[in-house]
Amino acid sequence: MLVSAKEMLDKAKAGHYAVGQFNINNLEWTKSILATAQELNSPVILGVSEGAGKYMTGFKTVAAMVKAMIEEMNITVPVALHLDHGSYEGCLKCVEAGFSSIMFDGSHYPIDENVAKTTELVKLAHDNNMSIEAEVGSIGGEEDGVIGAGECADPQECKAIADLGVDMLAAGIGNIHGKYPANWAGLSFETLDAIQQLTGTMPLVLHGGTGIPEDMIKKAISLGVAKINVNTECQLSFADATRKYIEAGKDLEGKGFDPRKLLAPGAEAIKATVKEKMELFGSVNKA
Ligand code: 13P
After folding, report:
1. Where along this sequence does the record place binding of dihydroxyacetone phosphate (predicted)?
2. In order of start, what are the domains of the chain with their CATH numbers?
3. Taking residues 72-82, what's their average pLDDT?
4. Among 210, 212, 211, which residue's Cα sits nearest to residue 230?
5. Which terminus of the chain is more exposed, N or C, with fewer CB under 10 A?
6. What is the pLDDT of residue 23?
7. How remote is the CA of residue 209 from the centroid of ligand 1, in Å?
8. Is 43:32 a contact under the CB 8 Å cutoff?
9. What is the pTM of this model?
């Protein structure tokens, strides 16, 4: 069932668990994530970066594929199709394409401009029954060409953006996209706590979910995080399983070169990663 992310995230925030956003790149990714969510009876958010949208030939292709897969696979758990780190123009395109949720990443604008653009997009999203995520303070590292310095968000600015009526708020708290460096200082729970105190029931979003230790994930959920984004970890699992298949020479045995066989270990590896995360985030049986 394709739905806005609002209800699933409000329930997660109230129930002290988090819904995973898993980014998709192609049909295999989407199929693996949807199958796992259904098997575990978990709500799920499919994240699409602007780069991944382009790779899949455009947001309309993505929306059509996801809607058809939900129907053909008999997926009954709530699924949100969400633009990840969208530009203003990207948000407009996803509204038109039939996504159910958008993220407007205005974190690189001065706060007044972020407020103005977010206000406009909140109205547009809600007029179209879609949920909207905004961002304050940038996530470090690089996500498909979106580069952030990784500064912690100002809790007052978070409140200003939350008060615009967004459905979820991403706040930089020392989190980084991609692999964490060995000298990473960890998440700033002080910042997270201050943000949650000012934003109340607003579901908070933790980007850069790859490689955050379990105890930090659990603490972040206890301080109001209700959505956790994971991208790199599925890519690493997929690449690792595919490499093992090829290194074992399996593509050279019989019809092992058939793409349905060649891509199968990677697709299974994505399922295992998604399952592990859903169990850790506490979203199993919360559909
Ligand atoms: P990772 O690639 O670090 O898992 O981050 C994903 C993310 O935050 C998508 O917005």
Report:
1. 178, 208-210, 229-232
2. 6-281 (3.20.20.70)
3. 98
4. 210
5. N
6. 98
7. 6
8. no
9. 0.96
